[in-house]
Amino acid sequence: MVQGDHFWPYRAEHRGEDFTEGNAWQWTWFAPQNLNGLANIMGGDKQERTDYSAPEVMTAQGKAAFLANLDALFNADSKADTTQSHDMSGFIGQFVMGNEPDHHVPYLYNWTAEPWKTQEIVNQAMNDFYHPTHEGLIGNEDVGQMSAWYIMSALGFYQVTPGSQPTPLVARSSIKR
Known about the structure:
By secondary structure, the chain is mainly α. Helix content is 30%, strand content 2%.
């Protein structure tokens, strides 16, 4: 692709040669190192940062756009593109529970005015895509990631960033070495 050329017509659900193990719907959210900056870009902030010594602050406009885009992801048509990877399964809208690039996305609601949606989506994913059978996991169990996501989510934490506020399934837990 030559700079300035674009694939047309653009479709966010298209995977093909553009993305690996996901599409634009999923990879848009893979900026866990700067969620505030991602939100601000979504909100139309085109101001260039000059001071990188302090963390970027999420603007009100960015926060509203971040929430609207998350809602759009989870409410989008789940129809898969014909070029989808076998790893892309377990859809809630265009969120893909069956592959790792999306696992942090339900927890991003904790950065919005509607953090309860984290609990709603996490509970839906655990109930719909995990079952106590020999084929009880959706998607691709790369090095235990699908199981780890469930365990951490059931315990009520997830490592998008320290201090996030997911929903626990248990009132108390302890982990012994």
